[in-house]
Specification:
It is a multi-pass membrane protein. This is Sugar ABC transporter permease. One of its GO terms (biological process) is transmembrane transport. InterPro entries: ABC_transporter_permease, MetI-like, MetI-like_sf. By secondary structure, the chain is mainly alpha-helical. It has helices spanning 3-10, 19-57, 75-81, 84-115, 122-128, 131-134, 137-147, 154-161, 173-201, 205-213, 218-229, 231-246, 250-255, 270-278, 284-331, 353-362. It has a domain at 89-320: Orthogonal Bundle (MetI-like fold), CATH 1.10.3720.10. The longest helix is centred in the C-terminal third of the chain and has 48 residues, at 284-331. It is flat and about 100 Å long.
Amino acid sequence: MTSSTLGRAARPPRPVLTFRQKVGRFDHRFSPYLYIAPFFILFALIGIFPIAYTLNVSLYDWHLLKGQGDFVGLDNYASVLGDPFFWNAFGNTVSIFLLSAIPQLVIATGIAALLDQTLRGRTFWRMSILLPYIVAPVAVAVIFLQIFNQYHGPIAGLLETLGLEPIRWAFDVLPSHIAIASMVNWRWTGYNALILLAAMQAIPRDVYESAALDGANKIRRFWSITVPMIRPTLIFVVITSTIGGLQIFTEPKLFDGRTNGGGDRQFQTIVLYLYELAFPRRDFGRASATAWILFLIIILAGLINFAISRAIRTADARPAALGRMGRFRRSGPGGQGSASGTGSKPAPLTVTGASVGAQQGES
């Protein structure tokens, strides 16, 4: 009899598990999946299914009341892309987005930097900047409609005092975009400021202290330490602002509730154009095609943001890598100076965004 046969014969039999042990083993293996299953089930029902169903509707001549019609393939997409009103809405959307996102990001970063300092009543100020976010959008619209009233608002009164002509906020293209962007900025700046403040609070204080000992002032510390170290959060805010800006609907709709973007479509956005197709015109096929085109535009914008952020991160990592190579060459393999035997004085500490990122990566 061979040794392998003896080994198989000597193997002890498997123990018989009790029912409780079987339940415990099943719980250990599958309970984590059961805990997260409700989220994925809800996401599939209210997320994936509507997207897939909208894609199906976009391929048919679908009427709101008559229901599904003939299969038209990509004709709805061609019709939307060939409609000059769609491109007008696209231009308005991009314009309002730029007028709201850029000032919003700058102001939110500045507010977060101020709240990151030692202030009296910091909790009060941090809570107060969130108040515009919790105000109902309808109330925000009522307030700003009074502010941007062409004849009786405070801005109109100021212009009249200065001897200037009143601005047609609700009728001209650029003034209407500025008014709507002001509503967006007032509502969302504090929200983004709190997100950026949380990122600033996570920066180690000793990094600022080291930079201060090296003679860096507050402005230098902000640009060389704060901004580089909160860059991932800045990218997150930019991406979420991009998604929200391209999907803007509430503010332009409430700015003139009688129309879908003004009498001349001067501030009609893509979502307002979609709304007009879906309900006044009852053309669900073209509306669904518009929704998918907007979905692809948002994905493209996200990819562009990702590419830009990756390029910036690569550019920041290159000086740090070159600095490490330079220190290695100066110190030599044994850390006793260069090959000529002459010692070198240590370089003064310079705190930059790249060096801070490199130090965090090494740690």
